[in-house]
Amino acid sequence: MKIYVIRHGQTDVNLENKINSLNDDDLNETGIIQAKQVGKKLENVDYDFIISSPLTRTKHTANLLNIKSKDIIFDNRLLERDAGIFTKQLIEKIDEEDWWNLNPKQDYKDAETVKNVLDRVYDLLDELKNKYKDKTILLVTHGGTSKAISCYFKGIPEDGIIKKYEHDNCEIHEFELE
Question: Is the pLDDT of residue 178 over 80?
Answer without folding.
Answer: no
